[in-house]
Amino acid sequence: MTEETRRDEIAAGLAGVEAQIAEACRASGRTREELTLVAVSKTYPASDVRLLAGLGVRDVGENRDQEAAVKARECAGLGLTWHFVGQLQTNKVRSVAGYADVVHSVDRPRLVAALGQEAVRAGREITCLVQVALDGDPRRGGARPADVAAVADAVAGAPGLRLGGVMAVAPLGEEPGRAFARLREIAQAVREAHPGADVISAGMSGDMSEAVANGATHLRVGTALLGRRKPFVR
């Protein structure tokens, strides 16, 4: 496939996503300016990230440090904001702190401490979102709803970190609108304690409209932009 053909494919995907966002905004009385589109480029090459940047996309998400660190280096100088959206183990924190501007998956005090330490070491400020396990099961990532306030307080008090807000994935088998309505309530509680924490990262290719209707500020979209992924092979 030529670069021009791939650019046309991505441009068509972006146009489709923007049309969905515009319709969701109309339906919920919101403006497009309230929303940030994070293009999740996992398993896709840095060349796709460069094409996205050329089409005006400025926020890029990755969920594996091994892949993200290389792409961030290859795409340095494009003025991109890098979002780490996957589960984060403490042994990867030093690497992630070197390039991630926003970490969406902060879910435990130990991770907060490690991220803060590495952010200070790198001379950077990292925006952190508290990931919420809306099904109450933290095994797939996320803090239980009852633990969110404590994690948020830890982020707000950590040098090198800034509390941005909350993030969640709609639980499997649950109607996304109901799940995101709960996230909105949790986000409001966090914002009452920390007025600057106004980010709600929710919504992916299949549930963008429900997320917009429930106050999402950041949409994490991959498949609808870049096409169906091939399985990742180590």
From TrEMBL:
Gene3D superfamilies: Alanine racemase (3.20.20.10). Signal peptide: none annotated. It comes from the Bacteria. Keywords: Pyridoxal phosphate. Residues 34-228 form the Alanine racemase N-terminal domain. InterPro entries: Ala_racemase_N, PLP-binding_barrel, PyrdxlP_homeostasis. Its cofactor is pyridoxal 5'-phosphate. GO terms for molecular function: pyridoxal phosphate binding. Belongs to the pyridoxal phosphate-binding protein YggS/PROSC family. Pyridoxal 5'-phosphate (PLP)-binding protein, which is involved in PLP homeostasis. NCBIfam families: YggS family pyridoxal phosphate-dependent enzyme. This is Pyridoxal phosphate homeostasis protein.
